[in-house]
Amino acid sequence: MADANTGLHIRTGDYVLDHWRVPHVDLYSFSRPGGRWFAFEWLSCVLYAALHRVFGLAGVAMFSALVLVLWPVVELRDCVRRCADPLLAVLLIFVGIRAAGIHFLARPHLISMLFTAVTMAFVAREREEPTRRVWLLIPFAALWANFHGGFLVLPAYTGLLAVGLLAEARFAEARRWFLVCCACCVATLVNPYGFELHRHIAQFLGSNWLSQMVQEYAPAATFIGDGHTDAFFALLALAGFCALPMLARRRLVEPLWILFFGYMAVHSARHITIFVIVAIPVIAVELTRWFSLLVKRMGRTSVPGVLATVTREMGPSLARVTPWGAIAVFAILLAGVPSQWPSSFPSGIVRRDADVLTGSRLFTIDHWGDFLIYRLWPRQRVFVDGRSDYYGEQLGLEYLTMLETDSGWQKLFESWRFTAALLPMETHLARALISDPGWRIADHEGDAVLLIRRSEYQLRPPVSAPAP
User: Fold this and answer.
1) Cβ 22 vs Cβ 42: under 8 Å
2) What is the CA radius of gyration of the chain?
3) Phi, psi torsion values for 79, nearest 5 degrees
C-alpha cells in the first residue's frame, strides 16, 4: 500500500459502480478539467472498489497479496510440466520474485503479472498438444484489455512465437499462431475506447519524457544496487547464456522472447516483471538440459546424479501444488490487515484541514494527489496525480519545474494561482515557500507541511516551522 495510486483506482471504480458507465473525461483535476481520459484499467478499478466497499483497504491489500502468491504457483507448475528440474525451478522463481519485487504494489499491473504467467503456461501446453482450446486466448485477450494496459503482452508473445516458428521453417505452426495473434489483436479492441486506447498507450510508452516524469519507467540501470534490479540483471545474463545454445540448435522462438522482453525491461524498469515471468521457464528448461548432460557424463552415483534423483522425486508433489493454500491464507489474514495507509502519507493534515484543502487551488506532489482523491473526492480537485499519461509532457514538465524550483518557476507558479501547497519538507518548493513572506505554515505533520497564501486565508494562527 505504499502507492496511493491505489486510492485513485478505488474512486474510479466507485464512479463506475455508481453511474454504470466508464468515464471518458477527467473526474479529478482542475488543471485539465473535462479533458479526454482513458480509464483503461476500469475493470480492475471496479474490482478494487467492490473489495473496498466490503472489506476496506484490507481487502484490496490482501487481494493484491493473493495475486502475488498465485503467479509463482502458476509458474512453478508450468516449469514442472515442461520437465524442468524442480529444484532449479524453485530457485529461479525465488530470484524472479526478488527481481519483480520492485513492483509489488496494490495496483492493476499485478493482474497483468498473473495473466502473463497464465498465458505462458497455456501457450506451452498448446505447443505440445495442439487443441481447439487455443482459441480461448481470444476472449482472454478481450478480458485482459479491460483490466490493464499490459494486455499488449499477449499479442506480442504470440506474434514473436509465429515469427520464430516461421524462421525455423515450421510453417503450419507459424500459420496457426499468426492467426491466433491476429485474432487476439482484434479482440483487444473490445474495450470502451476501441482502437483509440491502443494509440494512446503507444503514444504514452513512446514519450521521451516518460522516464523523467515517472520513476518506474526509467531504464533498469538507474536502479542498480537496490537488490531487485541486481536480481533482474542476473536473470538477464543467465537468459542470454541459455539463448546461445538454443540458437546453435536452431531454436529461435525462445531467444526472440528473451531479446524482445529483455530489451523492454532494460529500457524501462516497469517491464522487469514481465521479462521475469517470460524468462524463468525458458531458463529452467535449458539449465535442466545442461544438468542432465552433466549427470549422464558423471553417472547416477555421482553427487549431481544423486541430486538429480532427489529433485526428480519432488516433481509429482510440486505438480499437485494448487492455489487453494494461498486462498486459505487470504481468508485467515484478511481480518488482521490494518485498514490504513502508511505513515508516509499526510493523513493527519488531510483529516484536520479538509476544508482548507478542498476550498483551495492546491499544489501537491502527484503521489499525494492520488491520496487526496481517495480521501476527499469529489470535493477535492488536484493539480496533478499519478495519471502521467493523462497530464502529458507539457504539464508534467511544468509540474517538475515548480517542484524543483528550476528557472522560471515563480512566474509559472503565480500563473496557476495556487492558494495552498501540501508538500514534503525536503522538496525545494516547500523550502522556497516557507521563506516567502507571502506564505505561512498552516499545519505540519512529520515530513509533511501545509502552506497557505496569506492573502487568501485568515484561519488559524500561524504554526511554527518544523525543525529541519
Assistant:
1) yes
2) 25
3) -60, -45
Count Cα atoms within 13 angstroms, Cβ side, for 390. 23
pLDDT, residue 283, reads 96
The 10 Å Cβ neighbour count of residue 20 is 7
User: Which has the higher per-residue pLDDT, 330 or 249?
Assistant: 249
Which residues make Cβ contacts (< 8 Å) with residue 355, sequence separation at least 6? none
Q: Which of 329, 338, 315, 281 is nearest to 116 (CA)?
A: 281
The x, y and z cell numbers of residue 187, run together, are: 479482440
Confirm if 231 and 98 have CB atoms less than 8 A apart.
yes
Q: Per-residue pLDDT averaged across 45-53, rounded? A: 96
- HEC-encoded secondary structure of 297-363: HHCCCCHHHHHHHHHHHHHHHHHCCCCHHHHHHHHHHHHHCCCCCCCCCCHHHHHHCHHHHHCCCEE
pLDDT value of position 158: 97
User: Cell digits for 19?
Assistant: 453511474
User: What is the DSSP pairing of strand 420-424 with strand 362-364?
Assistant: parallel
> Predicted confidence band at 305 (pLDDT cuts at 50, 70, 90)?
low
**122-136 mean pLDDT:** 95
CA dist 400 and 406 (Å) reads: 8
391 Cα distance to chain centroid: 19
